[in-house]
Write a structure and sequence with these properties.
Layout: H1 2-24, H2 30-57
């Protein structure tokens, strides 16, 4: 998994400046900010999905976490 993350980071550090430079040649810099916002939202949705699936696959429910609540 670490290899996938490192590969993605390496590709992004090369590809993203090329893409944003190409887009900036059109003269409309605001498109770059919209593109960045789109990538941020996509990353957030992916992180929420991975968090949800991890919890579901690993059985991280209240009954299995060892969370004991004392009732007064």
């Amino acid at each position: 998994m670490t290899g996938f993350v490192a590969t993605a980071a390496g590709l992004a550090s090369i590809v993203m400046p090329l893409v944003t430079g190409w887009v900036s040649k059109s003269g409309n810099i605001s498109i770059i900010f919209i593109f960045d916002a789109f990538l941020s939202v996509t990353g957030f949705i992916a992180a929420v999905y991975v968090y949800y699936r991890y919890g579901k696959l690993m059985g991280k429910g209240k009954e299995q976490t060892g969370d004991i609540r004392l009732h007064a």
